[in-house]
Amino acid sequence: MEHVVIIGNGISGVTAARHIRKLSKNRITIISAETEHFFSRTALMYIYMGHMKYEHTKPYEDWFWEKNRIELKSGFVNNIDTRSKTLHFAEGDSLKYDKLIVATGSKPNKFGWPGQDLKGVQGLYSKQDLDNLEIYAPDQSVCKRAVIVGGGLIGIELSEMLHSRNIPVTFLVREPSFWDNVLPKGDSELINHEIKKHGIDLRLATNLKEIKSDENGRVKSVIIEETGEEILCDFVGLTAGVSPNISIVKNSDIETKKGVLVNRYLETNIPDVYAIGDCAEQHEPIGERKSIEAVWYTGRMMGEVVAQTICGNRMAYNPSHWFNSAKFFDIEYQTYGWVFSEPKENHAHFHWKHENEDKCITIEYNDETQEFKGINTLGIRMKHEIFNRWLSENQSVDYVIKHLSEANFDPEFFKRFESNIQKQFENRLHTV
Amino acid sequence: MSHKLNHSLSLAKPDAFHTSPKQKIFLAVGVIGFFMLVLALFNMGSFSAWGFSLAIALIAIGIGGFATNAYLAKPAGIKNDGVWFNSISSRGLLGWLTGMVLTLFYIVLYFYPHLLGLGADGAANTGLISFFDPFSKLLNGGPASQWFVYGTLYTLAILAFGYKFLLKYRHNRYEQLRTYSVMFFQLGFAFLIPEFMSRLNSENFSLPYYDLKNIWPLNYYNFEQYRVDSMISAGDVGLGILIFGVASILIITPILTYKYGKRWYCSWVCGCGGLAETAGDPFRHLSDKTQAAWKIERWVVHSVLVFVVLMTTAVIYTYLGYDAEKYWLTKDIFLFLVAGLLTLVFALVMIFKRHELGKDAKFGAIGYFVIILFLIGMHYFSKESNLFLFEAETLRSSYGFLIGSIFSGVIGTGFYPIFGNRVWCRFGCPMAAILGFQQRMLSRFRITTNGGQCISCGNCSTYCEMGIDVRAYAQKGENIVRSSCVGCGICSAVCPRGVLKLENDSMKGRINANEILLGNDVNLMDLVNQK
């Protein structure tokens, strides 16, 4: 019986633990300095908005861990001694392992802005970030205005959160349109409109110059790079992406670059040490994927794979077609396959937008072979399974458009848009 | 940890959850209407029909205006901001207060109607009930009873809060249609039609008028002697109603449940469901999601079902005769029919579906089956006058008191703000138990999940009024096939990633468990999922 120790109780570490338990009788310990039990990080926003309490974000009841013989240890790892296979904790104790999985997740990016470490300046990643948010921005009287820096998924979520408590929000986005390094123009513009519709002060193509402090070391205002404008505020959200949280690995023998370097088997340079989830960095990116994939779904998949390897069935991380999802205020977003902000070489985009409702889709396809490459869908739910199959079958864009209704996943009685989409697709061919 | 501040019990609340000036005005309007009811209750001043109309109108305008201002001022979308901060919806002071007032109201309504002003022995009504007399005379020609008062207020609540729900979910057509449906069935079938039917009754024609969609065993008194007698004596119409009553549970219900799941009744037609989905909507997240609660639910709700079967069998048995020449349905034939039907259902499930039953479900099914047949057999061979050890009347009155009044009324509705809006439907309703049993065993209905898209956020589980841990299925990519699911569709509505969909499809592959979700290595999925 081996002792498998997992650092980090997020989706990656917990998925690995669950699958190792299913496959073996190994002793399993999960270490966390964040919370006693696993919670869904993606649900932090709903706690602040009052949709849920912290308890509701825990996917398993508290008895689950003991019943499945998964030991939980609260503690902060100071040092990983890979030679003696021992973890040393900040609390002074230590723990031996036979196999180690590093699943420490991410931390918010800070790009050296003056004032980035002031009180009331923070990202939104951890449970502690949420607790701090309740201190610095609990309501409109404590926080008269909040400024969000960075136009990505967490930025828009944090805007929505603060807005739900009637706190005026100024949202600084470096790009000329929201998330337009990922979303095509039409999709991105729909989201710009949605952000403004909810009364957010959206500032596109705007950079942060510095964050100013009051006499108590608390944020007082921010200065805009382009105009020099000073915006008074009591809270600044730094949401310009995340990077691997690997401070505890840095001073060990485990090789790192931006993240913990792993091969396709999620193995590090040290035998019996693995890394999964946000903190893992592939030597070579897989397909169109980034070498660091800070996404819930990939964390889960890596956990599923590494459990196989640890339990004797050595298996490469070999994900199927890319997919992702998000919700931008009231607009749901799903993507299957690859849609780039600009079509790749030889590729083209087909964009459909509803006349007056907040719905649109963008399909990327190969202009020469007509092969379907991917879809973004905003405001219409579509089936993962169907698109995964069509992508595996290398279906043509015509086939996809023709059979689009098979992929619809909207609730019963919802209005359908396939015929409208098909018509526009045909017209596009006539006009070209 | 400041997020653990219980805002609902503290005076400092997040600003957003303050009411707007317009909302305060509508609140005041509604309170004035309600206050008129209170004045009437205490016999303060005499009100005309106009007074009654004014009070009802003020309450309706208050609720409707408040909702219009609260929802139409914001873009369409999920409106759960601050649900766990608001005192009324998070078991705060207002929640407990509301629960206590409702509970007391039910106790008075069921057991002390004279306190509401019900005139005893033909005396004129006073108080709150007399306040409703003009309206009652308008509809059915007679003075009001406590049930008329209750029915009117119940219908008002479903209509006014139904309007509110329609605004809250104006982006969701499934929710819209479902709400129009419960509003229609409450107003038409539960309220107006029975009142008009009662008008048809006269000295020489008496038909038990009732809510036709109120099916046995929810309507546990439907086959009592006085009702069956009057249906038979009312000629073809009455006989038709009696046949419809029997066919409802034995034929119509199974067909509709097979096609659409139990939602066709529980969240589209039923009056209890109608109130839960409209006035009860602000409390849906208060249901207990633990596995322990699920275990209690299964034992309690099925025990109530056994109770109602025994009680009804005993009651019908008492008024049937021994002589087959007078009427074909004798005591013995009736007992054989009941035992035969139960044996048939039991045998079919055990032959075809036993692998779908959990261990405790098998124990429960076998245990109850043996007990019922033992009781019937014991009776048959001993010819005791009491069918199930107790007098039928004792069974009937204790069921009426314990289940009909205390469980469905006092606890079921009075405790909305404490245990959530479906306590009765989940733990007590024998109709829900029958429909749910069929939904689990033989129905095309299921909630499907969307590949690997679940992020385990927990919105679905939190807002499931039946306390189903929807997330536990969604994060495994497993369809949700649960007997308790009433198909309200809220899990699908609140899902931020488009993972859940209520569907009717073929029985094949309805129950599917995946260890590895879609999106990962195809070979790994094959390896693990096909084991």
UniProtKB/TrEMBL annotation, chain A:
Cofactor section: FAD
Q: Which Gene3D superfamilies match?
A: FAD/NAD(P)-binding domain
Identify its protein family.
Answer: Belongs to the FAD-dependent oxidoreductase family.
Q: Which GO terms describe its molecular function?
A: oxidoreductase activity
Every FAD/NAD(P)-binding domain range = 3-289
Q: Which UniProt keywords apply?
A: FAD, Flavoprotein
Q: SUPFAM superfamilies attached here?
A: FAD/NAD(P)-binding domain (SSF51905)
Listed name of the protein: NAD(P)/FAD-dependent oxidoreductase
TrEMBL record, chain B:
- Transmembrane feature ranges: 25-44, 50-72, 93-112, 147-167, 179-197, 237-258, 299-321, 333-351, 363-381, 401-419
The 4Fe-4S ferredoxin-type domain extends over 445-473, 476-505
Q: Name one cellular component (GO) term.
A: plasma membrane
GO terms, molecular function: 4 iron, 4 sulfur cluster binding; metal ion binding
Q: What are the protein's UniProt keywords?
A: 4Fe-4S, Electron transport, Iron, Iron-sulfur, Membrane, Metal-binding, Transmembrane, Transmembrane helix, Transport
Q: Pfam families from the xrefs?
A: Fer4_5, Fer4_9
InterPro entries hit by this protein: 4Fe4S_Fe-S-bd, 4Fe4S_Fe_S_CS, Electron_Trans/Redox
Q: Which PANTHER family match?
A: FERREDOXIN-TYPE PROTEIN NAPH
Q: Mind telling me what this protein is named?
A: 4Fe-4S binding protein
- Species: Bizionia myxarmorum
Classification lineage? Bacteria, Pseudomonadati, Bacteroidota, Flavobacteriia, Flavobacteriales
